[in-house]
Structures are given as structure tokens and as C-alpha cells.
């Protein structure tokens, strides 16, 4: 019963948060100077033309009225019409979401892989120069944000040793009709490895830029937890049984040391998704973030609202999932 | 125990010295920019466009780090850019710290409604992608130095509020706070004289971190062309220009990038170092 109450409360605060985001975005962007309607009409349009178009987008009503009309639409899945492209916002946003999701998930996997390797190597090489080097490099990697790593990578792998593409998501010359916008997933399913290679070539740098700071955090925290676990009696016991150091670390210590890292990864994953906005811009990757910046520059109010709300939804869902995973994975909470 | 402590101290000293050294250099460069800069940072010389740095063929005397596509001197622009970066770091960092730490302290010490309201607002703020939030705010406020500072404060106060709230809550539960309250000290006075000094090391560490973040936010906004003005010399603006011409003139990107990299790294290492130094457990 208690659990149900907790879940209910959690969902209620989630909705409150989303509502808060919706209110803030809606009212903040209405203060933006510049009339978006006037911008979309050709020069020489009459006052009457502007008024007609404003009525069509509902901009002639009072702001609170506009808010409730918009909110009513959102609850039915209608996010309005984009001013700059005149297409439904939901269509535009859902069209771009897969690109951002693929980028975020690939970056997350890279971060776990690099961070995990660093932590395990560091634990294995306790007290050696290698451990010192790992500590210093994770310290540096952690302090520098994804935006700067992106620029460093452009210089390294785009200019100095040009092996990866520095802009876009896929080479325009590749002639392939995707049925979904999950290009990478689809290329995998269809076993089109040539396409997959091209996608990886485009995604490698933006994903790595996003992954580096998170990999450093994972590396540091997991190594710390492993270090603490390695001092426990049961690990010493496993060692006396004659298991190899490798077995002791990965099979005995790791399962007990991983929980704090997992929780942290969940929280950090939302930061990583937030980072896609500028990283997509930097690498001209056609995802949500890139579209969002254009929407702000074009004063496309309905599109901005839709994108921000989708990001907020993504963040809250990730947090919710992490909390649930934590309950499932933590034996103390599972049996409570 | 003694050895373990010595271990922590040694690299820490080097870290503080290196980061402090770079930041001192930066402050000097910014203060003395009019004396040190070989050229006017805005002066264009179309006959001296894209000159390489001094050690490469084709370099010209007087342009040690080369010029950009409009023939503006990279070194001069970097020195003047350091001024803007440092102003943003100091002003935005301090204001963010003051507002965020105050709200966090109130939420963590008084609890109740104050805590509920502040925590809910923090939750809402955390659901915004920060870069998008910053860009939106600049669209609302218009470009300019003041707008950038306001945008950073509005977005990042939660960073302080979250951490300080948690720390204040832990401290409030301690016996020394209860004894201060029992001895008839008012809440406000207890908060300032008992809680604040114990939370201060964390706040200071966060403050230096925030200064680094402020520099980055400014650079990001310059990068999407929403910072101060397009011809003010900012590191972010230089990087944006360098990014587009990276194949023709890498130096326009590399030098400001190194400056930005070292500055952000120094601020955060300084923060970490200060935290360790002031940490009563390690001390």
C-alpha cells in the first residue's frame, strides 16, 4: 500500500513539474520581441493580412486564453502548427526525436564502456603509475564540458587526422529509403553495414564529446566503490579461495559496487540529453536540439513550446525509470 | 593515516598552483590588454587576412598568433576577450552563488513550505535543457553583457540551491545546532552563525566551479551568435568563426580554444582543491 502511495506521489509531482515547464515556456516566449507573423509574410503585406494570419494562429486572443487553448490541444496530442514551416509541430518534433535519442543512447553506451574500462583497469592496477594516469585524466575530462570536447575532437579527427565526418547525420549521397527515423537501428536490422558505417562515421565525434565527461564520472565513482568493496571480508575470502584477481574484481566486487554508479548514471543521463542541444549545433546533426535553436532564431513559438515540453518529458521519464530501477536493483528496498 | 593524508596533499598543491598560475596570468593579460595587445582587436586589415602564427611560413611580424579572415589580430582579440570572460565569470558567478545559496540555506534550514516551494521550482528548472533555456532567455532579453549575466543567474542558481539545501539539512540535524537553538538563539541568527560557516567551504568550491561554467555559457552563446555583439572580441565568437574556417586557418580556432580550455579547467581544479583544503574531515 505504501508503495502505491509513493508511486502516486511521484507521478503527481512529475505532472506538476511538466505543467510548470509548460507554463514557463509559454509565457516566457510570448515576451520575446519581434512579431513572428510579420516575419513570415512577404514584404508589402497589408495590416489585414497580418491580422488574418494572427487570428489563424490564435495570436489575437489574450495570453491566458491562448495558453488554455494550447494546453487543451496538447492533452489531445495536438501541439499546434509551426510558424516557419507550417507543418504540425508534433510531426516535426517526432521526426527529429529519433536522431537525438540515437545520439544520446550511443553516447551513454560509450560513456559506460569507457568509464567501466577505466574503473576496472584502475582497480586492477592499484598503486601503479597507470592508476595515477587514470585519476589525472578522469579529473581533467570531468572538468571540461562536452562543448569543448566537441571542438577538440573536431580538431583531432576532423582536421589533423580527418577520419570522421564533422557535420551532418548521414552522407546525402547514400541512397536509402528509411521507413523510420531511427536510421542506425534500421540499418542494423536491415544488415546494411555500409549505411551503418556511414552513420557511425557521422555520429562518432558528437557522441564521444557527450560521453567523455560522463565516462570520467563513471570511472571515478565506480573505481571508488570498487576500492571500498575490495576491502570487505568476502572479497578477501574469494581471494584465499584462489580466484584470479580478474575474477575477484569483476565477479565478486563489481556486482556490489555498481549500484551507486547506476543511480548516478541515471541522473547524469538527463544532463547528457540536455547537452545534445549544443553538440548537435556544433556538428550540424539534424536532431531536436539543432531544430530548437533554429526555432528560437525564427521566433517559431509553437515549435519552441513543443520541443521544450518534449525535452522536459524525456528528462522526467528518465528520472522515473531510474528511480524504479533503483528499487528493483537494491535488495534492501525490494524486500521492504 | 598520516601517509594517506600526505598522499592527498601532494597532487593537490600542484593543482592549486597550476590553476592559480593560469588564472593570475589571465587576469594580468585582461587588465593590461591595452598595453600588451599589438593591435586594436577590432581593426581589420584585409591585406593581412588569415596570416599564420609566427613559426609558420608566411607569418608577419606583429601578428604573433596570426589573423582571422578579416585580418584581425588573434592575440589582441584573445586578450580583450579575456576581459569579457572574466567579467562574466566574476559577476555572474557571484550573483548566482548569492541567490542560489541563500535560497538553498532557507529551504534546508527552515524546511516546511519554504522548502516545498523552492524544491518544486528546482525540479521544474531541472526539467529544462540548460542550453536551450539560455538561448530562449537571450531571445527574450536581447543580446548584451547584462542579458548574458542575467541568463546565467536565472539558469544556474539551482546548482547552488540543491547542494546547499542538502548540506544545510544535514547540518541542521546536528547537536550543535540544537544546542544553539536551546540556548535561545533565534532561527535567523542560528542559520547565519552556525550553519553558514559549516556550509561555506562547499559554497566556495561551487562558486569557482560556477565561474568556469559562466565562461563556457558565454562562449556557447557567442557560438550561436547570441552573445554580446558580433564584433566584440569574445572567445566564443572567435571559436565560432574558427569552426567555419577550420580547414583554412586552424589557429583562429585553436588559440581561443586553448585559452577557454585552460580557464575552465583551472576554475574547476581550484574549486576541487579548495574543497579538499577546507574539508574538515581531511584537515
Characterize this entry briefly:
The complex is a heterodimer of chains A (336) and B (283). Chain A is mostly helical.
Keyword list:
heterodimer, A: 336 residues, MetI-like fold, 2 domains, B: 283 residues, mainly alpha, elongated, disordered N terminus
What does this structure look like?
The complex is a heterodimer of chains A (336) and B (283). Chain A has 336 residues and is an all-alpha fold. Chain A has 2 domains: 57 residues, no CATH class; 243 residues, MetI-like (MetI-like fold), CATH 1.10.3720. In chain A, helix 5 runs antiparallel to helix 11, helix 9 packs across helix 11 and helix 10 crosses helix 11. Chain A is globular, with a radius of gyration of 24 Å. Chain B has one domain: MetI-like fold (Orthogonal Bundle). Helix content of chain B is 74%, strand content 0%. Chain B contains 10 helices and no strands. Chain B is elongated, with a radius of gyration of 22 Å. Chain B starts with a helix and ends in a 5-residue tail after the last helix. The N terminus of chain B is likely disordered. Chains A and B meet through helix 1, helix 6, helix 7, helix 11 and helix 12 of A and helix 4, helix 5, helix 8 and helix 10 of B.
Number of strands of chain A: 0
Instruction: Please mark out the parts of chain B with pLDDT under 50 across 5 or more consecutive residues, or reply none.
Output: 1-10
Average pLDDT value of chain B? 85
CATH topology of chain B: MetI-like fold
Report the C-alpha radius of gyration of chain A, rounded.
Answer: 24 Å
Amino acid at each position: 500500500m505504501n508503495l502505491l502511495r509513493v508511486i502516486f506521489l511521484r507521478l503527481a509531482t512529475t505532472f506538476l513539474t511538466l505543467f510548470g515547464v509548460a507554463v514557463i515556456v509559454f509565457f516566457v516566449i510570448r515576451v520575446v520581441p519581434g512579431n513572428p507573423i510579420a516575419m513570415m509574410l512577404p514584404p508589402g503585406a497589408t495590416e489585414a493580412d497580418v491580422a488574418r494570419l494572427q487570428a489563424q494562429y490564435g495570436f489575437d486572443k489574450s495570453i491566458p486564453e491562448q495558453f488554455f487553448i494550447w494546453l487543451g490541444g496538447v492533452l489531445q496530442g495536438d501541439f499546434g502548427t509551426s510558424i516557419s514551416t507550417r507543418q504540425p509541430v508534433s510531426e516535426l518534433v517526432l521526426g527529429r526525436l529519433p536522431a537525438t535519442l540515437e545520439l544520446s543512447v550511443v553516447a551513454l553506451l560509450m560513456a559506460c564502456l569507457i568509464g567501466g574500462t577505466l574503473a576496472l583497469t584502475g582497480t586492477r592496477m592499484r598503486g601503479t603509475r597507470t592508476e595515477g594516469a587514470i585519476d589525472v585524466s578522469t579529473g581533467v575530462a570531468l572538468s571540461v564540458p562536452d562543448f569543448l570536447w566537441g571542438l577538440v575532437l573536431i580538431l583531432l579527427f576532423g582536421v589533423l587526422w580527418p577520419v570522421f565526418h564533422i557535420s551532418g547525420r548521414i552522407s546525402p549521397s547514400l541512397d536509402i529509403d528509411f521507413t523510420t527515423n531511427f536510421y542506425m537501428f534500421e540499418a542494423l536490422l536491415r544488415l546494411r553495414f555500409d549505411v551503418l558505417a556511414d552513420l557511425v562515421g557521422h555520429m562518432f565525434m558528437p557522441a564521444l564529446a557527450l560521453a567523455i565527461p560522463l565516462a570520467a564520472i563513471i570511472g571515478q565513482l565506480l573505481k571508488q566503490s570498487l576500492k571500498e568493496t575490495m576491502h570487505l571480508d568476502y572479497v578477501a575470502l574469494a581471494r584465499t579461495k584462489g580466484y584470479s584477481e580478474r575474477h575477484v574484481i569483476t565477479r565478486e566486487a563489481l556486482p556490489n559496487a555498481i549500484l551507486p554508479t547506476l543511480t548516478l548514471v541515471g541522473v547524469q543521463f538527463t544532463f547528457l540529453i540536455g547537452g545534445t542541444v549544443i553538440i548537435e549545433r556544433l556538428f550540424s546533426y539534424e536532431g531536436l536540439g539543432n531544430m530548437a535553436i533554429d526555432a528560437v532564431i525564427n521566433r517559431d513559438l509553437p515549435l519552441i513550446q513543443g520541443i521544450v515540453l518534449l525535452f522536459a518529458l524525456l528528462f522526467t521519464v528518465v528520472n522515473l525509470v531510474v528511480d524504479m530501477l533503483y528499487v528493483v536493483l537494491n535488495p534492501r528496498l525490494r524486500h521492504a | 593515516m598520516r601517509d594517506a593524508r600526505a598522499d592527498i596533499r601532494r597532487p593537490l598543491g600542484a593543482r592549486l598552483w597550476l590553476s592559480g598560475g593560469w588564472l593570475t596570468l589571465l587576469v594580468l593579460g585582461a587588465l593590461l590588454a591595452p598595453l600588451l595587445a599589438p593591435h586594436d582587436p577590432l581593426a581589420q586589415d584585409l591585406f593581412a587576412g588569415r596570416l599564420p602564427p609566427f613559426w609558420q611560413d608566411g607569418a608577419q611580424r606583429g601578428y604573433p598568433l596570426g589573423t582571422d579572415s578579416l585580418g584581425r589580430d588573434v592575440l589582441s582579440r584573445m586578450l580583450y576577450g579575456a576581459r569579457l570572460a572574466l567579467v562574466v565569470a566574476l559577476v555572474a558567478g557571484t550573483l548566482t552563488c548569492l541567490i542560489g545559496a541563500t535560497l538553498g540555506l532557507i529551504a534546508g534550514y527552515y524546511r516546511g513550505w519554504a522548502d516545498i516551494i523552492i524544491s518544486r521550482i528546482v525540479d521544474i528548472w531541472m526539467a529544462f535543457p540548460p542550453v536551450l533555456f539560455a538561448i530562449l532567455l537571450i531571445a527574450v532579453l536581447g543580446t548584451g553583457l547584462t542579458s548574458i549575466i542575467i541568463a546565467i543567474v536565472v539558469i544556474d542558481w539551482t546548482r547552488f540551491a540543491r547542494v546547499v539545501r542538502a548540506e544545510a539539512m544535514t547540518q541542521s540535524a546536528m547537536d550543535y545546532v540544537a544546542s544553539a537553538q536551546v540556548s535561545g538563539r533565534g532561527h535567523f541568527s542560528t542559520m547565519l552563525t552556525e550553519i553558514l560557516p559549516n556550509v561555506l567551504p562547499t559554497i566556495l568550491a561551487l562558486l569557482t566551479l560556477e565561474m568556469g561554467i559562466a565562461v563556457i555559457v558565454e562562449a556557447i552563446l557567442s557560438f550561436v551568435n547570441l552573445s554580446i555583439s558580433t564584433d566584440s572580441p569574445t572567445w566564443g565568437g572567435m571559436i565560432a568563426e574558427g569552426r567555419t574556417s577550420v580547414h583554412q586557418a586552424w589557429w583562429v580556432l585553436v588559440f581561443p580554444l586553448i585559452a577557454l580550455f585552460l580557464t575552465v579547467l583551472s576554475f574547476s581544479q581550484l574549486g576541487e582543491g579548495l574543497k579538499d583544503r577546507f574539508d574538515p574531515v581531511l584537515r
